[in-house]
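chain below, 111 aa
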Amino acid sequence: MPARRITALFAIPVAALLLTACGSDDVHGTITEKEHKAAKTTWSNEPVTKRQCTTTKKNGTSKKSCSTVKTGTKRVSHRKPECWQIELDDDAHELCISKSRWDKVRVGDRW
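prediction:
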């Protein structure tokens, strides 16, 4: 049997096992709070830099030295999408869920 076929025979079940295992980290608890958070955009200023190099010659040899130089600033946006949030009683999980699902659950429901 060719090596590729043997590899494929082992790869398929391993991939299926890994994909199944990813779904086992479900969060559970009692819903203690529901909150809607509107989409929000915040802005920050970040430095813009460039690398500047100079070459000096001394006694027939040249030496190159480089440094990073600030050339200005740029505005960067940070967007947080709309969130239909539930908080669970373990005080460790705040989950954003779909609006249709958020409308159906109530405080006190098991998640």
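The first helix runs from residue 3 to 22. Helices lie at 3-22, 99-104.
thats it, cya
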